[in-house]
Amino acid sequence: MAVRKSPIYRVMIGGRMLGGVEYNLAVTNAIVAAMVVLGGHHYSYILVALLVHALLKQAYGADPDVRRVYMRYFQHAHRAEPWPQAGSRKPRPTGWAAQ
């Protein structure tokens, strides 16, 4: 009997994206660009907005959860201890390779 295979598409498991960037960031970038261009008549800002979008797309191409990872790091980085201190009650497990 043949094994049944179902395709898994990234859109089914990932977050909402717009042009390869998280939807909220892409819309915010577009709104800011529209305000600067229409309100301030700085038409060269369109190039800046496209550059920002390209940089965000590159970051999200490497890791789709990049914003959530950095936000969690910024919130918890000062609380976490990366290694146990001398005299801690819970030492590292046996066989842990100290490097």
Strand content: under 5%
Could you name the ranges where pLDDT drops below 50 across 5 or more consecutive residues? Answer: none
How many runs of DSSP E, i.e. beta strands? Answer: 2
Strand order within the widest beta sheet: 1-2
Distinct helical segment count? 4
The outline comes out as flat
Seen as an oligomer or otherwise, the chain set is single chain
Q: What share of the residues lie within helices?
A: 40-55%
Major sheet attributes: 2 strands, antiparallel
**N- and C-termini, Cα separation:** 50 Å
Computed Rg: 22 Å
Q: How confident is the prediction overall: mean pLDDT?
A: 84
Structural class: mainly alpha
Summarize the helix and strand pattern as letters. HEEHHH
Describe the structure.
The protein is mainly α. The protein has a domain at 11-76. The protein has helices spanning 10-13, 23-40, 45-62, 66-76; strands spanning 17-18, 21-22. The protein has a two-stranded antiparallel sheet with strand order 1-2. A hairpin with a 2-residue loop joins strand 1 (17-18) and strand 2 (21-22). The protein is flat. The mean pLDDT is 84.
